[in-house]
Design a protein that fits this description.
The complex is a heterotrimer of chains A (about 450), B (about 325) and C (about 325). Chain A is of the alpha/beta class and about 450 residues long. Chain A has 18 helices and 14 strands. In chain A, strand 1 (about 35-40), helix 2 and strand 2 form a beta-alpha-beta unit. With about 325 residues, chain B is an all-alpha fold. Chain B has two domains: about 10-50, no CATH class; about 80-320, Orthogonal Bundle (MetI-like fold), CATH 1.10.3720. Chain B is built from 16 helices and two strands. A two-stranded antiparallel sheet of chain B has the order 1-2. The longest helix of chain B is centred in the N-terminal third of the chain and has 34 residues, at about 90-125. Chain B is globular. Helices cover about 70% and strands about 0% of the residues of chain C. Chain C is built from 15 helices and no strands. The chains are: A alpha/beta (about 450), B mainly alpha (about 325), C mainly alpha (about 325). Chains in contact: A-B, A-C, B-C. At the B-C interface, helix 3, helix 5, helix 6, helix 7 and helix 9 of B face helix 1, helix 2, helix 5, helix 6 and helix 7 of C.
């Protein structure tokens, strides 16, 4: 009795559950909605304002903005490419885009630029060209960044250093110049001796002068590129080049000088200590004199528990050099609304949108006037970030991010190599030579 | 409104219902008594799920391992090139070694701790609150656990080094030190999983009839003897389950590493799964190499599990011998 | 040492579920065990204390007081912020002042609802279908049984990363991205773990009752429903809880499939507190406050149902 009923019941449950799991519904799709993603929450309000302005002018195109944290951003983009579900337009990074070009995932914007006669010379010089290859164009610049010194005002003053003098430091890989002297002066051991004192106890440091905050892998944008290039180093034989020069002695001496800050001199926390929570966390803990960081981090530093200031990079044998890096907006080839996406990208790259972004005072837009506006907004808020802008405006003050094929593999190789130097497991000259061979073999 | 859905949702269930009602009685009588029919019926739903989401992708990845393919542009057949590549790749071999170290640090300690917690909950104090506390680490999302320990283990800002400094042991590098990173990662995952594992063991302990202990006590057996002669053998099905699944899980450690060290410093925590991940998401998309590495990992796990199952005779329970 | 014989017999034969504990003797080994237990408890609890400590630390002080056991100036602002108890204008002002904190907040009830739907559906489906299959593997004889079971077991050994791209493409082809179905589907019908888990328990089940029922002319379906299922209530319940919590904590899959606000689950919502910019740190205070909020439902579930789990396992053999 029960058995048959029970059996039927069981069958029903199984099959109904199976059916429910298989019933399909189709989602209705809006006609023209352009999906746009970015990773920085702090920029979201500005770009939302741009989107509103854009839709007001183009009522038939709606912009749907999604913000994804940096940790998940690229996984989501890559998976989107694979599954055919990527956003129409996305914020692109120089370290990532060459890969996407090889994988044929980006729309060439050049025909659109020519058709609509979009001026690409309204941006900071060089920015637009970063996104071109063989006559094709894969993005329109949206902003730029440089690096500069961020210092803890109280610590600098306590060491008897006039913060203004931080703008005029010099550096060389042999004795470190006045840059190293300031670092030493800001390093204090448990007995109160600073790094310049003969009694300095490097095993017992309570306050460090400086830290690069990691080894920086293959590009060292905020870690060593500003030193190495100031020392005469060049990454490779130009944008989209096929040969790297990581074996250059000018790089080896720079990296060794940097690693010796903690391996030999005790002026910086060691590599393990630097890598945990990162540079800004270490600095904000309040016992690091100064660090060098990028302009996109300004807001974070200003929010420290103490007063901070910004200063120019030190000048090396070859001058004062900062990497000039920029973001752009790219269109995915799989987009069903390429024309509408282009309209949006064009607007993002225009003075109209960049002025809105500049007014928010979060990043420096790619158009100089808008960047000046951003500087002004921050000055009005009592924060002087001219060190970053001056660097960008200085003749020969910047060098470009080394864009080549194989960015991902180079990162893997160089991160390992740089780490081993920073850990004291390998000396810079020989480790970099081996790594350079491996990197260059990628291009064969 | 969704316009695409015109058919009412109950149409299918209704059809099925009618069909079932109409099933002839004779067939039902036969079906209910046929072990084979019932067996297949019972496994059918799970088989569908298994084929769609496990077997098919797995078998396909064996095929992909013979391709050079980035998932986006046409694939190229390359024979065993991918296997040749990983065989000669220093990083892959290191990753294998690193993974084995990790498992060796992770599993014995975790299982032992779980066993001890379970026995203590059984012998010393048992309350659902205490169980709740021990299992709490496992209730936290993986990402949070990894970040939390990254924070506490931070060599310069972490509370653990602060404590070690206070007691005079001195500060450690933990996740930033190539010689400590694997142990540190193992510690994080032991913290997260020991309590959870102990709940499984505890459930197993509870299935042991208390009468057995009584009988042994009458025979004059001590606590330790009882533990070795009754508890351990009777826990075998549960223990073998715990060991088999946790070893497999341990070989596939990934989340914690992706969040804390990203395989560093200097590649010292690049486990196999992180190597595979790099092949797809960090480097150019090398689906073939990633698949080949996965096949190798599968074979390793298969061997390890087969050895464990034979050794632990997981399919049999000793309870039958006693009852 | 544990109980007197008569007590145990009473318990065993009358199925009495009294909470009355027999008196325990205090001995050296018991004290040692207690000490060890307390040590383990400390190690377990301290990191959880750290979650709470960080959650009440003002974001500005997160690094400057990184090594303090308690913040000098505890605040409930983070929790209010995470729960959306402070107004949008206030939040915008806070973020403007300190961009290291996330502008995100948790629409707590909404995300909890989504998490419940997803984890609940997975739990119901997976537990039921896996138990069915496990019973078949443990008790019924049919051709290819072992082959199929060992292939299931093999499924456990396939690196998840290999599965996840094809599965994602499959879900995408079904147009299930952004739906509950998409999040639920891959683990709804089975996981190798669940089948393996239940099989081990069925194997351990005393066969006497089943044999007796068979002699009485019961069918296999009847035995499963009337004897095996009730006897295994405990393990099934345990599996259900394990499955629920595992699904609740799942991150990458729901992140890829269910980012849409409508279906977003709690763990995915928590990711707004992770680092938003390259080289930026997470919003520690917000993340930890969010974690506390997110863990409360599963903790309560475990506390209330956890007793049932173990108790039902305890007595299952004698019913």
């Amino acid at each position: 009795m029960f058995n048959k009923k029970g059996f039927k019941l069981l069958l029903i449950v199984v099959l109904v559950a199976l059916t429910f799991s298989a019933v399909m519904t189709t989602r209705a799709q809006d006609s023209v909605t352009v999906k746009y993603v970015l990773w920085d929450t702090n920029q979201l309000p500005a770009y939302q304002a741009c989107a509103d302005a854009f839709t007001a002018a183009n009522p038939s195109i709606k912009i749907e903005i999604e913000q994804l944290g940096w940790d998940d951003y690229w996984t989501a983009i890559t998976t989107g490419f694979i599954s055919g579900d990527a956003p129409d337009v996305f914020t692109d990074h120089l370290a990532k885009y060459p890969e996407f070009v090889v994988l044929e995932q980006l729309v060439d914007l050049q025909p659109f630029v020519e058709r609509d006669e979009v001026a690409t010379d309204i941006y900071y010089p060089g920015l637009a060209d970063l996104w071109t290859k063989d006559g094709a164009r894969y993005g329109l610049p949206k902003d730029w960044d440089t690096v500069a010194i961020v210092y803890n005002k109280a610590l600098v003053e306590a060491a008897g250093i006039d913060p203004a003098t931080l703008n005029d430091l010099t550096w060389n890989p042999e004795d470190g110049g006045t840059f190293e002297q300031v670092i030493a002066q800001l390093t204090i051991d448990a007995n109160g001796n600073n790094g310049l004192s003969p009694d300095f106890d490097k095993e017992n440091v309570v306050q460090y002068g400086f830290t690069p905050g990691g080894m920086g892998g293959g590009y060292g944008q905020t870690e060593w590129s500003w030193l190495a290039v100031a020392n005469g180093f060049t990454f490779n034989n130009g944008t989209w080049g096929d040969e790297y020069y990581y074996d250059d002695p000018a790089l080896a001496s720079t990296i060794q000088w940097m690693a010796d800050l903690w391996l030999e001199k005790g002026y910086s926390p060691n590599l393990a200590e630097q890598q945990g929570l990162g540079r800004s966390a270490l600095f904000q803990a309040g016992n690091i004199g100064f660090v060098v960081d990028g302009s996109w981090m300004i807001g974070t530093y200003v929010a420290s528990d103490f007063e901070v200031g910004f200063a120019r990079l030190p000048a090396g044998p070859n001058g004062r050099k900062s990497m000039f890096n920029g973001l752009a907006d790219s269109i995915w080839v799989g987009s069903k609304h390429i024309e509408e996406s282009w309209q949006w990208v064009k607007f993002l790259g225009s003075a109209d949108c960049q002025t809105i972004v500049g007014q928010s005072g979060v990043v420096f837009p790619a158009i100089p006037d808008a960047a000046t506006l951003s500087l002004q907004v921050r000055a009005d808020a009592g924060v002087d970030v001219s060190a970053f802008v001056d660097q960008a405006n200085e003749e020969g003050g910047t060098f470009l991010f080394p864009i080549t094929d194989w960015g991902g593999e180079i990162s893997t190789i160089m991160t390992e190599t740089m780490d081993s130097i920073g850990l004291g497991e390998a000396d810079a000259a020989s480790a970099l030579k081996d790594a350079n061979d491996e990197v260059n073999s990628l291009f064969q | 409104m969704q316009t695409a859905e015109s058919r009412p949702f109950w149409e299918w269930p209704l059809k099925i219902l009618v069909t079932i009602i109409l099933i002839p009685k004779k067939f039902l009588d036969w079906a209910m008594n046929s072990e084979a029919f019932l067996g297949y019926l019972f496994i059918l739903p799970s088989l569908i799920g298994f084929i769609a989401f496990f077997a098919y992708p797995a078998v396909r990845s064996v095929y992909i391992s013979t391709l050079e393919w980035n998932l986006l542009t046409p694939a190229k057949h390359v024979g065993d090139d991918n296997y040749q590549f990983i065989y000669h790749d220093e990083r892959f071999r290191e990753a294998l070694k690193t993974t084995v170290y990790y498992v060796l640090y992770n599993i014995p300690l975790q299982t032992l701790l779980a066993l001890m917690i379970a026995v203590m909950m059984d012998k010393v104090h048992n309350s659902s609150f205490l169980r709740g506390i021990f299992v709490l680490p496992w209730l936290l999302p993986n990402v949070v656990v990894a970040l939390l320990w990254l924070w506490m283990m931070d060599p310069s800002l972490g509370i653990i080094n602060q404590a070690l400094k206070q007691v005079g042991i001195g500060e450690q590098g933990f996740l930033g030190d190539p010689d400590q990173v694997i142990q540190s990662l193992a510690a994080i995952n032991i913290w997260r999983h020991a309590g959870y594992t102990s709940i499984l063991v505890f459930a197993g302990l509870k299935t042991i009839p208390k009468g057995l202990y009584e009988a042994a006590a009458i025979d004059g057996a001590g606590e330790i003897q009882k533990f070795l002669r009754i508890t351990i053998p009777l826990l075998r099905p549960v223990l073998s389950f715990v060991l088999v699944t946790s070893v497999i899980g341990s070989f596939q450690v990934f989340d914690t590493i992706a969040i804390t060290t990203e395989g560093g410093p200097a590649g010292s925590s690049r486990v196999i799964l992180y190597y595979i991940y790099e092949q797809v998401f960090e480097r150019r998309i090398h689906m073939g190499t990633a698949s080949a590495a996965s096949v190798v990992l599968f074979l390793i796990l298969f061997t390890v599990t087969a050895i464990q199952m034979t050794f632990l005779r997981a399919g049999k329970s000793d309870l039958a011998e006693y009852s | 040492m544990m109980a007197t014989l008569s007590k145990l017999q009473v318990k065993r034969f009358t199925r009495e579920t009294t909470n009355h504990e027999p008196k325990k003797r205090i001995s050296g080994s018991r004290i040692l065990m207690w000490l060890f237990l307390i040590l383990l408890l400390f190690v377990t609890i301290f990191p959880l204390y750290w979650v709470i400590r960080t959650a009440v630390t003002p974001p500005k002080k997160v690094y400057s007081e990184a090594r303090a056991l308690a913040p000098s100036d505890p605040t409930t602002q983070n929790i209010e912020r995470v729960l959306g108890l402070i107004s949008d204008e206030e939040l915008t002002a806070l973020v403007k002042k300190n961009p290291t904190i996330s502008a995100g907040k948790l629409d707590f009830l909404h995300f909890v609802k989504n998490s419940c739907i997803v984890a609940g559906a997975i739990t119901a489906g997976q537990t039921f279908f896996s138990s069915l299959a496990a019973y078949a593997f443990a008790r019924l004889r049919f051709p290819l049984r072992n082959l199929i079971f060992y292939s299931y077991l093999g499924g456990l050994m396939v690196p998840s990363i290999v599965l996840f791209i094809p599965n994602f493409v499959l879900i995408r082809n079904m147009e299930w991205i952004g739906t509950y179905k998409g999040m639920i589907a891959p683990t709804f019908l089975m996981t190798p773990f669940a089948v393996f888990f239940m099989r081990q328990f069925f194997l351990n089940l005393n066969t006497d009752l089943e044999e007796a029922a068979k002699l009485d002319g019961a069918t296999h379906a009847g035995i499963f429903l009337k004897i095996a299922m009730p006897l295994s209530k405990g393990p099934i319940f345990t599996l259900a809880i394990l499955t629920f919590i595992t699904s609740w904590n799942e991150y990458l899959w729901p992140f890829l499939v269910g980012r849409d606000e409508k279906v977003r689950v709690l763990t995915v919502a928590l990711s707004v507190f992770r680092s938003q910019t390259p080289q930026g740190g997470p919003d520690w205070a917000g993340l930890m406050a969010g974690t506390i909020v997110a863990v409360i439902p599963t903790f309560l579930l475990f506390i209330f149902l956890g007793r049932k789990v173990v108790d039902s396992i305890q007595f299952s053999g004698f019913k």
